[in-house]
Amino acid sequence: MIDGCNELGILVRIVLPLSLPSIATLSLFYAVDRWNGFQDALILQIKISIRAIKAVPNHHCEPTASYPAR
What we know:
Blueprint: H1 7-43, H2 56-61
């Protein structure tokens, strides 16, 4: 016990506030990585009829999306 705090108090008042910046940074890196993976699937597709699984939802959400002429 530190200054009368129990284990939960230590977790909530000391450990959690100190770890929030690192959790936020890791969440941001994870989100950017997932977004880049989705964009790569859209950019690198060769034919419209052969799409990566990641690019299929985008095609169904935006049926008027323009694709490069091949």
